[in-house]
Amino acid sequence: MYYLKEVTNQSYQDYITNTFLKPNGLNEVKFASQVDSGKMAAPYNNGQSVSNATVTKAMNSQMGQNQLVITPEAMLKLTQLLIKDYGNNPNFISSQPTGRLIKSGDMYYVSGGIVGYRTSIAISQDGKKGIVLISNDSNGKDNLTPLVKNLYSNSK
Questions:
Q1: What is the pLDDT of residue 4?
Q2: pLDDT tens per residue across span 23-60
Q3: For residues 122 and 97, what is the distance between their CA atoms, to the nearest angstrom?
Q4: What angle do CA 119, 121, 125 make, to 5 degrees?
Q5: In 3-state terms, what secondary structure has residue 3?
């Protein structure tokens, strides 16, 4: 097993920024640990307000600090780039470098998030058709995947 830092001499965040974000004009995309949570949409969990301290803790946890704070447009563009460059590689899905990206029929889809926030994506295998949903109300359940898959299936 190789570690990204040993192979590239860069942190995970720097590698993602220098390899994917900056070269593709995604300069507004930040890692959660780099963003003032007070400037984000107020988070909710099951309709209940999530405290700023809870969000800050989640954003700076080991998993949270590697999450991206991103607009739906930028998320679609980043996903299109990844699909275009890596989507046909069998290891892209089997090794799951993307977390839980799932291939189904003519699309890939995935959902994820941190406390108070949730994102779900469905995108065609060629990257030309896609839907991104971002919510500031999480409920500990994956409630966006069925919706994004339905919207994708019904879009032209």
A1: 76
A2: 999 999 988 778 777 777 888 888 889 887 887 777 77
A3: 17
A4: 160
A5: coil
Structural domain 4-154, CATH architecture = 3-Layer(aba) Sandwich (3.40)
Contact 134, 117 (CB under 8 A): yes
Domain locations in the chain as residue ranges:
4-154
| 29-42 per-residue burial string, b: 16 or more CB within 10 A, e: under 16 | bbbbbeeebeebee
Separation between Cα atoms, residue 151 and residue 131, nearest integer Å: 7
DSSP string, 107-148: EEEEEE--TT-EEEEEEETTSSSEEEEEESEE-SS--SHHHH
For the record, the structure tokens of 77 come out as 């563009």
| Cβ contact 136:122 at 8 Å | no
Question: Which residues of the chain are under the pLDDT cut of 50?
Answer: 1
From start to end of 46-96, where are the E strands? 48-49, 68-69
